[in-house]
């Protein structure tokens, strides 16, 4: 065996350029697999020989923080600094000089105030598009040094996410072809903050700060570019594939992108042996607004078959009667999915349906993601040729709504379809029905 100690070296190309940049703000990435998180962890190590140095690495939520940054730091940091110690209770690394690199999260908007009196010479945001613009800008006020150390703000991200638009605007010269100022990849520009907002300026302008975007893709990472990771990215829905594989910042949800008529062939016979779910997305009120929709989907032999769609606009009493009557027609073998809205009122209403449907296999499902994100997994299956529609009078209205999503007037059938697919592909399905165990739960990336 060799006595040589393992070492870490930057990947030539984008990762090296990111680590060597002297700009104040650097955005790194643009696609999945480009070694972004690794670079973000290593970047603050340059200054840990300074006793007063303080660095902070952030994710939006604590589980994300623990799963990515903290776990990987336990492997990386001891390679360069064997005597560095991780303080579990405080979530920071203490280095021999006295320098520290801490980990934090900003799950809620007001969480920024927990850093109100802090002073950080290095701020790192992992998956920046998951943060709000307000959180990012506020944390910049904590980037300062009373000891004369350089200030560095670093961010890594993919396109997409709730913060896509503000990140796209902030780095417009690199990402937006319609921006009045243009910059090449890796080209540093300067700006200054004025009463009228940011203004691009020259390097010599008083108060000038610098900003740059360094793109990176999986093809830049030799540890992933020759694996099946790329093939898995190709299996994503069209929107997510464009964002994560191609690093396309211009890819946005649009009519006809997530669902196409050609991906939804119609069949005349449903499978006899299948696991079935009827998933209900209920409208807030009766009238001319949204529809209450219950879609029944079967899963068999790797296919997802939409067998029936029930739609109505009705009073709460009419909706309850329809859901109960439909459950009796579907039979006890069909699982019923009830969408649980946020808040105590949503919990109470969902519980009332569980009581109403006593004797049926009824399950509550909480919704936490936006509509487009929820639709993307079933979109990928449709494009992959794994979705069928059972012939019925509902077919045309269903296909039209899916093709128009997310720009159409209604999305209730899309929501119900997404919910049914999620119910069929989570661990709960094989756990509650032995007939279904031969079908592996769908794996999300």
TrEMBL record:
<dbReference type="InterPro" id="IPR027417">
    <property type="entry name" value="P-loop_NTPase"/>
</dbReference>
<feature type="domain" description="Terminase large subunit gp17-like C-terminal">
    <location>
        <begin position="279"/>
        <end position="422"/>
    </location>
</feature>
<dbReference type="Pfam" id="PF03237">
    <property type="entry name" value="Terminase_6N"/>
</dbReference>
<dbReference type="Pfam" id="PF17289">
    <property type="entry name" value="Terminase_6C"/>
</dbReference>
<dbReference type="InterPro" id="IPR035421">
    <property type="entry name" value="Terminase_6C"/>
</dbReference>
<dbReference type="InterPro" id="IPR006517">
    <property type="entry name" value="Phage_terminase_lsu-like_C"/>
</dbReference>
<keyword id="KW-1188">Viral release from host cell</keyword>
<protein>
    <submittedName>
        <fullName>Phage terminase large subunit</fullName>
    </submittedName>
</protein>
